Structure formats: structure tokens, C-alpha cells
Amino acid sequence: MIVPMRLLLTSEQRVADFEMKALSMNRFIIFIFACAIILYAHESSRQQMMKGEFIQGVDLSALAEIEDHGGIFKENGMAGDALQIFKDHGINFIRLRIWHTPVAGYDDLDKTLRMARRIKALGLKFLLDFHYSDTWADPGHQQKPAAWENVPFQALKDSVYQYTRHVITALNDQNTPPDIVQIGNEIICGLLWDDGRVCDQHNTPQKWAQLAELINQGVRGIKESIDPGDSVKIMIHVDRGGDNAGSRWFFDHLLAQNVDFDIIGLSYYPWWHGTLSSLRFNLHDLAQRYGKEIIIVETAYPWTLDWRDDRHNIVGTASQLHAGYPATVDGQAKFLHDLFDLVQNIPDNLGLGLFYWAPEWISAPQLESPWENVTLFDFSGELLHSITAFESASSDLSAPDRSSCSFHLYQNYPNPFNPETAVRFELARQARVTLKIHDALGRHVRTLMNNFAAAGEHAIVWDGKDDAGRDLRSGLYICSLQSDDQQQSRKILLLR
To answer: Which residues are catalytic, by number?
Structure first.
């Protein structure tokens, strides 16, 4: 009688054989899941590339002057190039203002050309901000350059055209063309006053027509100076972050004049422009109303209310703070986290990104600053850890249109974290939700919630432990929120 070999195996051997097969099957499942994650990440990355890189920008218009006056920027105590420091932490776009003939010589064409070379040498993109003035242009000041002060309107239009074309041509000639160009800075009341002024008694059909003519001459100067086949996006910038009525008033009038532009730019400083809720409402309405791409092209938040030099700081009282965001480094980081999240979720993927204004404007030995407590460096020039907001801005795995979702999962804060992080989500209506944590291979490690939740915002603290209460190792984890057939995910980084 021949006994099959498999029947001669001992019970221990059969168990071992079964365990080996089970282990192989588990490894196969983990392999398939890991491949799925890689494919998902690849597809997400491909879709982001098709849309264009999300802008994580900073306005460094003051950098050259600060460096010339002895300002030093440091990371971990080591002095370095501010541009390189920002690039190392996720910044991919630099904004520069340009003045016609500034008294101090900074922000003129020569300095802009030098900065553009530094920017492009690091592989960064840049936005050029025409103020069409010799000094600051903002909602309350739109003074003509002295060279254009008394020219008739037709000559003024030609000056705008010739000057704009000259600047863009000079940048092209040194192979540092801008990627985005602003025609004017915070022009809610127009530019080149009084010819292009449109507020108060100047709010007339004739003045709107003149403003449109001036802007179109700037656009013409840009388009006629770029090489065939190249393209530059045109931005119109106002300061109306949380002011929906003001924003609509301006863009309704401007678009009625057939002005050709691509991007709506907004400034948003909470002490001037309202709450994040009002900003969110405005952004959603503008996106749906005009269908144009949107950038928060100026924003900032204080990391302290203290001061170092004797120059008055623009932000210096608790009354200027946004509720829920203290004037601390963590408060600054939280503000940026939430602002990035808000812009990433503008309907129809029309949120292109944001720029932090003057993060380098520290108080230098020979140059005091009114912005020293709103920078991304401390009083000694050391980089603040709030810079991590830029690093984690691209960690979003899914960027859904919130207008069509019944819920929204925010990026956790802080991220990276140790030992705890807050996971926040918002429901449009009562629903049963599951909130789970998986490791990078897709293995379930923790259920944070599996229950009905009321409409509104919720926050759950994760302590970096698994369901059994054991500390998890440092690494990347995936937080997933699911309700019915909808799901959103975020990357979370645990650093022990």
C-alpha cells in the first residue's frame, strides 16, 4: 500500500505548512494593497500635474534691502540664503513688486532683474506685481509715477503699454520670464489716480471705461513682449478677502468692460478683511459667479505681539487677532493650515494657492521693521516651525469640491505631531461616519469614530496609539473619513 506523502506529515508539520501559506497570502494581500496605494498616489499626482502645481508662495520684495542692511536668516542656528531656506520647506513660487522710479532704489527694474535671476536659478516660479507707482500702491494710495504725473490720458495709456512691455522684455532677455503678472496692486478703487479712479464720486461709466483702457494697455504690453507659443497668466488683485459685496461690485463692473484676465487675486488679513468664514463664502461665490482661478495673493498672521525695535508694528493688539488663533508660533501655523485647506477646497478646483506676504521682513541692524512679529523668522532671524504649514499643504490625498460633499475632512493639526494631534471634520447634515487610521501599507491600526454625528464641526484627538493602546512607531499614516458612499483621506505624520 502506497501512502501519499501528505498523509505522512505530522500534525505539527501540517500546522506549519498552513501557517506558511497563510503568511504568504497575507503578504500577497499587503502587496496588492500597497500597489493600490501607489497607483492611487500616482493618479492623484497625475491629476494635480494636469491642473498645475498648487502655489505655496511668499512675497520676498523686501529681501534685497534687508540683506543689504545686515539682516541674517538662520535655520537651526546656521545662516543661509532665505530663498534656499524657503525652497527647502515647500515654497515653489516667489512674488516681487516693481516700482517705476523708487526714491531708495529698491524694487526698481534693476533690482527686480537681479532677484529674478536668483529665483529662477533655484528652479522657482515667480509672480511680478506692477504697482504702477514710485511707492506703495494700495486701496488708499494709487499715486502715479512722477514721470507720468502730468501727461494726458492718451499718453498715459501709451506709457503703461511701453513701460510694461519694456519690463517684461528685459526679464525675457535674461531668460527669467514671470509666470504670473499682476496689473496693479489692490486696485479696488482703481489705479493711476485720478484717471483710473473708480470709487466714491469717481464711480462713473467714464472712469470705469478709463480704468479698463489702462489695464488693457498693460495686458497688451505683456502679450506683445512674450515669445510666440509662450503664455503668461494675468491677475487682477483687490484687497476684499472677506468682503463679498465689495468683490462683486468691482469684478461685475470690470468684466462689463471686457477686460481680459485669468486670475482673481485677493488680499486676506483678518484684522482688515474679516473672518475665515467670510473669506470662505466670498471665495466660493466668486468661483461660482465668474469661473476664474483664484489666489490669496497676500496674507499673514503674527507669531507674537511683542517687538524688538522701536518702530511701531502694524499688528500689535489682541483685538487684531482672529478668534481661535493666538499670537503664537502654533497659532500662526494653525492659521496657515486652515487657510491652505480653505483655498484647496474652492469649488471646481479654482483655488490655485496662496502667497505669504513679507515673511522675511525682519528687523535688521540698520533697518527697523513694522512687520517683525508677522514674519516666518523670530527676532534673531531663526526660522519658525510654523513653516511646516507649507510642507504639509501638499499632503492632501483628496481635494474634493466641498459644495457637492456632505462632509469635509480637514488636515490634522499639528502635522507632523507627537504625542497628540487633532483631527477635525465637518458635516452638512447628521450622518453615520467612520473615522479610521491605517498605516502606509493599508493595515488598520485605530478606529477614532464609528457612530452617528450631528451636523457641524467635530474634533477628535488621536494620541498616536493603536486600538489596543500601544504606541505606534514613527511614520506615515492615513486618516480616512467615510459616510455612505463618500470618503476623504489625509496623510498624517507621526514623529516620536
So the answer is: 186, 298
